[in-house]
Amino acid sequence: MARSIAEVxxxxxxxxxxxxxxELLTLMQRAGCGVKETKEGCRxxxxxxxxxxxxxxxxxxxxxxxxxxxxxxxxxxxxLDGAREExxxxxEEQES
Length: 96
Fold this sequence. Notes:
By secondary structure, the chain is an alpha+beta fold. It has helices at residues 5-14, 21-30, 70-95; strands at 34-37, 41-45, 54-57. It is elongated and about 50 Å long.
């Protein structure tokens, strides 16, 4: 079940402060992103965006409640914004 990039951006923006780590990774994969696990967390890329990687730290500690920090979520939103812009540019080229 693929979701549009706009839907994922909206979901991330709405739940920026209370998004569990696993759910963030699932949303990013549904938006067409590549998710690679690292020692500290994960590295998220999108095939249409070159030169920008969103790094997401794995939450730890009992107070975190397995939620991702807001700056990491904002980086994911930036990555998806770049992908959305690339898609828009591709559509404009096809129309002309």
